[in-house]
From TrEMBL:
Domain Histidine kinase/HSP90-like ATPase: 255-323
Catalytic reactions on record: ATP + protein L-histidine = ADP + protein N-phospho-L-histidine
Lineage, broadest ranks: Bacteria, Bacillati, Actinomycetota, Actinomycetes, Micromonosporales
Keywords per UniProt: ATP-binding, Kinase, Membrane, Nucleotide-binding, Phosphoprotein, Transferase, Transmembrane, Transmembrane helix, Two-component regulatory system
UniProt name for this protein: histidine kinase
Domain Signal transduction histidine kinase subgroup 3 dimerisation and phosphoacceptor intervals: 172-237
Amino acid sequence: MNKYLAPALTLVGVPAGLAITGGNIDTTMTLSVAGLLALFAGFLNRFPRTVLVLSLLTVEGMRGADLVGSGWVWPATAAFVAVALAGHLRFAVIAGGLALAYGIGWDGFVNQDHDGNWALAHVGGDALWLAAVLAAANAFVSTRRWQREMGLRLQQEQQQRELDARRRRAEERVGIARDLHDVVSHTLAVVGVHLNVALDAFDNDPDEARSSLRLAQDVRGKAMADLKSLVDVLRDGAPAEPVDGLDGLERLAEHVRGAGLTVSLNEFGERADVPAAVATAIYRVVQEALTNTVRHACAQRVVITLRYAPASVVVDVQDDGTAPEVVIDGNGIAGMRERVAALGGALTAGGSDRGFCVRATIPFALSQGTR
């Protein structure tokens, strides 16, 4: 409350109210009461409850001494409003109730100038005025509180939206980084092997050289399409073109066969219920596992095994190459783990007595949608 508003309203309102209600017994005394209450009102911002008590004591004293002729609580309206706005509504109600009870006792039993009906009418008018003032003040406080809560809630929602947006952007960047790694790494590894084969066979077996070059060109074309899709996502926010998924596994195997490895693709169970997101993850896991085999394992044979269950898929990529004693998660293995973990699955990668094995177990709910 403005520190000048309450004193000004009190200084004007008290004489006007006494004049309207017939309580102006002496103009000098009326102005004195108004001035004293206005002086108290100047401290409402700092001591609202103390000012209310002093104001009521002043009003009761003036009424008891017949210095003013009306009003038990309304001359202290500014103090009641300030106390209610400060959050002390109960204190204001109790103080007002005590003042009104005192007024009933004084006008009804002590002061013999008026009968009981007059006392009830005038004190009842004060009570109605007080109830209206406190109700309005409480409504104002409730509205301000609601506005603050709504403002805080909107601010929190905005902050949460910004956090969600940053999280989504971070996840998109990580996903794009994984895709770039998978596409580029696989392409360079397979194309490099095919180029080496073509170079070795160029003089003695031109047909084999041409076949290797065609396979390298095929791998390069697929990689260019994948990279274009990723660039479109970065530039325009357009949805990425879908990865081949389960239907592309045989093509992956064919590319690696052309590099001189024997690749077997075995599937057990019904693949029809595998959701698209799971199929994409399977494709990327197999792609990265084959890339690592071509680049690092010095293997002769790779066996890809998919086992479909009603609500999960298990993928094994087993080669017969040389397995490292200690497996360090580079970008490739880390990317595979992240893909599988994002779908609630788990991935292991390590050596065995037969070579190196990557195994991913990916659960899914049938309600996720199918390929």
